[in-house]
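Please check this record.
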Amino acid sequence: FMKNKKKAIVDLTMVEEIFKGQSSTQFERVTKKKPAFKELDSHSCSIKYVKGDKLMSMDLAFKDNPEAFEPMMGALYRHIEQLKIQMKLDVEGHYIKRQWKKADLDGNGTLSRAEIMKLAGALNMGVKREVASITFDKVDADNNGTLDFEEFQNFLNYMMYRPEIAILFQKIAATGDVLDLKDWLPYTATTKTHDCEMIVKSDWKMAIENFVTFQRDIQMDESMEFQDCAEMLSKFQTNMIKKGAVVGDITYGTFVQYMSSSVNEAFDPSKSDFIWQDMTRPLSEYWIASSHNTYLEGNQLTSKSSVKRYRSDLCNGCRCVELDCWDGSNN
């Protein structure tokens, strides 16, 4: 249904959901005008994706080649699942790319100072406007008043800098065979003055043997061996050679990726697939994820309403949704 070829391109990393059938608003409008189009319901689908701050829909119907529908859907699902796995290994990197795509609405490959300030506010970074503006000038290498993607990455590196991880990296990199837990990370308020510019632009490296010691002594993974670490870290650091070869040192960027990835989660992943908590207690004793204006596909003033949002929010963990009831044509 898209006449504009640019709009017919969907970034699969921004896909939220895929629905089979003709249940989208656009499909409903078309089938009202052309009832015969409903015959293609079993060979139709809607791809919901984020563009800017809006939830968009690409609606597809296989009219001339319906036998290609199922293979296409299977290939699409597999590819998106593979992307999700890759994104989990680099949560921070994917997050930066996603924010860039949301902010670069005109697709010109740069962000202005105003767009950066708006994005900083939307991300709840908690920094003063003047601090963000100074950082903008610092990373604007060509002084053209806009940031390209590399400069934008540097901007977020400054904004998201975590001194405790930088200090931890330094300590592990400088450690011998043993890490002493009692002075493993003497983090105080004064350490926040640590110079992040040295971290962002440095080429610090950590020997993998030191990382193994960290895994054993601090992470308490006593079974961790050198090759286990090599295989795990090779997923984060593309220039590391996989099993059976010499492994290079670990960069600060790779260490940050590991610390913020699903591999390092404190949550037991085996408990995410089934209900293991006590579900017999009164409702007031539970924390409940809730959804406001559940039916809206975008902003509160101009976006459309859709029942599909209820399915999406419930599948994403919400257990309290909002339902507004108005008198309609049938009262």
Remarks:
- The CA atoms of residues 279 and 286 lie 9 Å apart.
- The two ends are 33 Å apart (CA to CA).
- Residues 187-194, 239-247 have pLDDT under 50 and may be disordered.
- The chain has four domains: 12-89, 94-160, 163-185+195-268, 283-330.
